[in-house]
Task: structure prediction
Amino acid sequence: QKGSFVARKDYIKIIRRIPSLLKSGETHDDDGSGSGGGYALLCLNAPELDTRFLIDLVEENAPELNFIQRIENPMSYPAIYPERALKVLLYQKSSTNNEHDANKGPTAEGGHKEETRRKDTEEEEKINRW
Result:
């Protein structure tokens, strides 16, 4: 449905929530080795927005996520201009868990992340009631 998700406006809300949905790092595999936290696969199919749009949003709003790689589109989905095509980025939650400090940090708007997340939740509840 046109307008049900507007990437410029809505993706930031999703990105802010991703770290809380991912498993924290410092897990131990069967062989005793440690690994990072959970993975997130971010997808964007908006020709007017490039890869940098997503990378910047994550850096500013979920710094505990580490960029791993951009996943190439399959050959069955060729693109003349890759930045105008489907963009799929793989991220992993940091193995060092500084979520408490990250949640207290200032946002670009000058407020705090907790306050911004609270406002996002309130806005979403209003929309759901509508």
Q: What stands out?
A: The two ends are 17 Å apart (CA to CA). The chain has a mean pLDDT of 77.
